[in-house]
Amino acid sequence: MQIEALSSKLSENSYPGRGIVIGRSADGKHAVTAYFIMGRSVNSRNRVFVEDGEGIRTQAFDPSKLSDPSLIIYAPVRVLGNKTIVTNGDQTDTVYELMDKQQTFEQSLRTREFEPDGPNYTPRISGIMHVENGSYNYAMSILKSNNGDPDSCNRYTFAYENPKAGEGRFIHTYMSDGDPLPSFEGEPEWVKIEGDIDSFTNMIWENLNEENKVSLFVRYIDIATGTYETRIVNKNQ
Fold this sequence. Notes:
- The protein is mainly beta.
- The protein has 5 helices and 13 strands.
- The termini are far apart.
- The mean pLDDT is 97.
């Protein structure tokens, strides 16, 4: 596997769907995460990210156009002590609640599976970052149907200890646009993490497909202190 520019991975794919990036800043000082959502339907595009405590949630931009909130209104980011949870659905709450009861990230997700939105059966993608006493590690997960067969759920967890400066991993729901949408395949893509929070945020937003992009969240967590900075970009203003 070759490390690639995140800008290329984004600009070359018109519809990666929802995506999670986790890694470490080039200066080695920050744990980095980004989460974006895209949409093809009016219902999916009618959203914004808003801050919710230490995390964020999705919200209808125009409530009168909200037709089905079940898979589009959720909290993508929640913080549990020194752990930051990032997911593409309401499994954020599952991970938060079960880890708070001493279950692991992987055990928590054993209670969930892909989304019930056949024929796509959108994968549930999740990430968790653990920053404590100057150390940092993270893990990512994908729960997907067995090649479009909803009778079987394939579960994959990837763990990264002592991640290297300037490197990250990128996982997204779809390989590309299509009908049905083809689920992500393989392990999370190895990408470069470059720049400060503002340049990193701008790079991601500028390289997401203009028609399909909806919202973006980026957070830089100081590994030494646990303090963080956040950026939110919404197409709907």
